[in-house]
Amino acid sequence: MRILLRPFEAFGEVKVFLISLSLIIALFLSLIFLGGYLRSNTLLFETVRDEARSYFALIVQTRLWNARYGGVYVEKQGDVQSNQFLKDVGIEPDIKCENNKVLTMRNPALMTKEISQLTGAENGVKFYITSLKPINPQNTPNLFEEESLKEFEHGIKEVWKVDRTTTPPLFRYMAPLYVDESCLVCHKSQGYKIGGIRGGISVNIPLGELDRKMKTNKVIITVLLIITVAILLFILYFMVWKLVSRLQESREQLKQISITDELTGLRNRRYIMERLEDEFQRARRSGKPMGLIMLDLDYFKQINDMHGHQFGDLVLKAVASRMRSSIREYDLLGRVGGEEFFIVSPEAEVEETLRIAERIRELIRGEAISDGKREVTVTISAGVTMLKEHDRDIDVLFSRADTALYSAKQQGRDRVVVL
User: Fold this and answer.
1) Backbone dihedral region for residue 75 (phi beyond 0: left; psi -120 to 50: alpha; all else: beta)
2) Catalytic hit among 158, 274, 339, 362
């Protein structure tokens, strides 16, 4: 995990961007899935509503069929009872036949009630007629039905709602019943007129199965959302991680280029001077010694003039390589310009600093440098100085090392001078 997060440690703003983008993606996908979930729920409710409308239309058509024949007679047997409310409005419901059988009338209202009992026993769907002025007290409306009937009087064509106060929850649907001529047989005394609203049919559909589908739908959509967000965020992280990794590599390369001498691969002047300042301050605080060595190739201009700059570059690379192999691991070696090099030796006494300078001088002088066609033996001069208590800054130190190098040149080159 540390490896995966490492590229972001140097790019704090990328982490903020990635987190922000992840939140935006998660929010965007959540809204999409929420919209899909709500839409699917809406479709499920619309399906139930259409089912309720179908029940209502079937009941209305069945009632019209019944009313067209002035009621339907059935044999009075078993638990079949006469319709007492027909007697109350002056209609005799029973007919006695010659074979002593008795037929009793099933008017539209009673027929609706008995069909509702059948559907209720089969699938839980119930429907019945209700009115603000019911003849039968059993048709007195509940609160939902009463409010719906009042809305019908204001031109509303249908009303539905989900009632979760019951177990199982119910989808309640209601639409108005309009007065026709057959209705006046029983309801004329109530002052109804043809075309008016005399009540409505209430359809109640259990939502137990629908609720189970909605819960399953919710679980499926939630799981799909989590999986989708996780996959997209993983892809996003991977792509950004690769990008940041490459940026980090480029940044490290640029950093190395900015502090490295292109020709020799040593540290450049800017870097070595910054580190000299750091070591200078550290040595002043700790009271520990610090040595400086300034080195310069002897007669390097003649090498360039005689053999060309390409061969001169080869000489510089070879000298740099030999210097690198001669210093301590924690010494700082850099090329400060042309054929001039500089070494900072932290915590080195004068004797050790001199040994480093002499080791480099002897190693360079001791082996010729060749490109296979030409061969030269080069020497170097070196100026050595140590940090002194009265040194105010690195400029004083640097100047003294430069003076020591100049003195070595004046004394005949190929030597080390200490100041």
Assistant:
1) beta
2) 339
